[in-house]
Structures are given as C-alpha cells and as structure tokens.
Amino acid sequence: MAKAAAFVVLSMSLTAAAFVFTGGDACEDAASMSAVDACKQAGTGAALAELCAATLGTSPEPKEETTFVLAAANAAGRSYVDTLQDIVKLMLGEPKVSDEMRKACDACTGNYMDARDAMNDALRHLTSCSLPELIIDFPRAVSAVDDCATKVLRAEGMSPLYNMIIGDRDLSMLGLRLTVMLLHPPPN
Predict the structure, then answer these.
(1) Which of 144, 145, 180, 182 could form a disulfide bond with 65, CB atoms 3.0-4.6 angstroms apart?
(2) Residues 71, 74, 79, 82, CA torsion sign
(3) DSSP string, 43-103
(4) How many CA atoms are closer than 13 Å to the CA of 61, on its beta-carbon side?
(5) What is the per-residue pLDDT across 52-97, written as a single tens digit (0 to 9) for each?
(6) Residue of 4 and 67 predicted with greater confidence
(7) What are phi and psi of 33, to 5 degrees?
C-alpha cells in the first residue's frame, strides 16, 4: 500500500502543472461579467461567497466567464494535490491510524485520481471551447471528492483532514456553479 500511495502522489504531482493552465483565445459563445457579479450569483451563502471572492478576486471589470471557471478548476486541482499529499503522509507516517481510516484513505486516493481526471477534462474542454462538456466534468469531481469526505467522516469523524476534503468539495462545487452560470446565463 505504501508503494501505491507514493505512486499516487507522484502521479498527482506530475499532473499539477496541468492545473496552472491560463487560458487562451476567447470562446465565442461565452458571456462576460465581473468577478463581483459572478460571486454574487454563484455564492449560495456567506462561506461560498467568501471562497468565490478568494478564488476569483473582487475586480469590478468584466471578464469572459470562462476565466472564472478556469480559476475555480485551477484552484480545485492545486488543492487536490495538497490534500492527497496529506492523505498519503497520514497513511505512511501514522502507525496509530485505524484500519478503517487506512481503508478510507486508500479509497480516497482513487477518488482524488478520479477528481483530478475530471478537472483535467474540464481544462481540456475549456481550451477547446467545448463548454457543454463542462457540465459532465465538474459533477464528476464534486462526486468523487464528496465520496472521499463521506468515507473519512465515517472512519474518523470531524478532523482537519475531513475539513480539507470539504474545502476541496466546495472548490469543486464553486466550479460547477460557475459552469451552470456560463452555460445557462440568467435573463437580463
């Protein structure tokens, strides 16, 4: 298991560069709005609104909405790498970890690989302006990370690791909400 966990961290680290994609040409059908407006629409409460502002910034200048989806995907991808590294450190370095927690962490490595793949797909779809495909990518990531959170919660209860995983789920959910706004703009 230690060898597999180390491989997963190496695999996630090697793909971390994919999460710093900066975008390119504009997508023809994408609308523009300010980060402030995007966060007002995407935020369903104070916590998500704060996360949105921290991820997108607070500029009042209009930008293409794909830049906001991209920012959320990049932030989620980078956070996945950090969380997975903590999961592997826990698995390799803590002899007092329960068998149930080890099983949860082992399953979480697979969940995080699935989430990483979904974010890589989202980045690829953003670069090619295949925007309708994003509505498949982000729910896959949200689901994978949420499955991990459920396993860790059952094995360990509330913990710093659980909180990290919930933060990853929230970043993934932010990307999903921004995607829905991009694909289904509110009426004027």
Answers:
(1) 182
(2) negative
(3) -SSHHHHHHHHHHH----SEEEHHHHHHHHHHHHHHHHHHHHHHHHHHHHH-TT--HHHHH
(4) 4
(5) 999 999 999 999 999 999 999 999 999 999 999 999 888 887 678 8
(6) 67
(7) -165, 170
